[in-house]
């Protein structure tokens, strides 16, 4: 039956497509993030959000057809743990609408889509395919961002329209930085692992190219998270293997960033401001500190359950000091000047603490910590299996482990400066799914 099917012309025509069919919905979500965000659509549901729902639906159909137990007990506990906190936050929401939308959104990003990615990814070839797709998206968005910086058509920064925001617009200045950072982490993971020479060369080239748009995004949080995540990848890959790659990246970074002319002065000022946020913070940092204090004050009033989904904007004015400005300035990249209200604390941990309380923070952060510990443990085992003197193995999934752990480390660091929101939130869900595949999949599934 199989040979007869393979002999059909239609089957032969579909043969190149068949290997990627299970992860094709995930690839579609990544591809949709390359489309421009229409002015006025910021903050609403995007095509990528809708496509992420299709990912979950395709996963459900596949499970029904195969009639097998979808997840192991460990995976159910780790991925399902945050649901308890979400349910508590929904019960404490101000309105039923806020409860429904908040519960659905958080369930989508932190449970359903990661679980679907875990189940749709079959082996390390799928992981590499998704990683290269993220790198390609990052290169595209980075190219748009560099063009914006070079031509003065980006978002407004220090009185000049030079901030690289890609196709996402000035209302979400962190979006392009997030995409480029994810691409950098994936490229570094692909470059460090023992693989084909072609893979390492292309990955190193993409790493060097993506340094430029990350620099001109002027996103301090993304800089810090990327430096920590890539540094962790270097250490986890083995110092001897990482020295050459690190030296190349450092040299290229100095050459490219150092040749920006006027931009280099702005970059130096932005970098130096990282160490000045406690002594002489600018208004954006002051606003962030004020919102952090407001979130902590909300938590002290409701320590176990928080103020409920969508509660931070409603309670903000009652807890924030007069130092909080009326909003952030939005201008440039084809958008007229306007004030954007500050509706979140720009710190994921404080957002969860204020709206979901200790119950939500412990369940959600506990899930992430479990993924990190299980992922690092498997990565150490994969690295030991390839060290000289050990028994030979056919497993060459070290790059998958470096990508998965690097993405989670980046996210955990970046959550100290940002929270969910905007079109790239679905990319966060996909990255958590890749980490879950590496940390929770059966050993036989890791092998191709």
Write structural notes for this entry.
The protein is mainly alpha-helical and 448 residues long. The chain has one domain. It is 68% helix and 4% strand. The protein has 19 helices and four strands. Strand 1 and strand 2 form a beta hairpin. The model is unreliable at 1-11, 389-395 and 444-448 (pLDDT under 50).
Radius of gyration: 22 Å
Largest sheet: 2 strands, antiparallel
Mean pLDDT over all positions = 82
How many distinct beta strands? 4
Q: Give the N-terminus to C-terminus distance in angstroms.
A: 24 Å
The structure class reads mainly alpha
Instruction: Count every helix, treating DSSP H or I runs of 4 or more residues as helices.
Output: 19
What is the N-to-C succession of helices and strands?
A: HHHHHHHHEEHHHHHHHEEHHHH
Strand content: under 5%
Helix content: 55-70%
Q: Biggest sheet, strands in spatial order? A: 1-2
